[in-house]
Amino acid sequence: MPITFVLDLQGKLTRSDxxxxxxxxxxxxxxxxxxxxxxxxxxxxxxxGLTLQTEIAxxxxxxxxxxxxxxxxxxxxxxxxxxxxxxxxxx
Length: 91
Prior knowledge:
Blueprint (H helix, E strand, L loop, with lengths): L4 E3 L5 E3 L6 H26 L5 H10 L4 H10 L15
Antiparallel strand pairs: 1-2
Helix pairs in contact: 1-2, 1-3, 2-3
């Protein structure tokens, strides 16, 4: 079982109670860098008052990023960056 250590500013090394998966964290950071433009456009869309996933994806698409990518990014960062709610179903 992996062990995680914490090095504080004074150089003291202590064992952490929380395990940190460094490889997973590196993948997450790399993915976030890859998604950075889409994330920024999604925040622009939200600030401009858009709330529906389809509207946000269309806004992102109009600014050069595909709708599928926008939808994946929207889903990938719930709830870290924004919240998502299901609206009433349309029949």
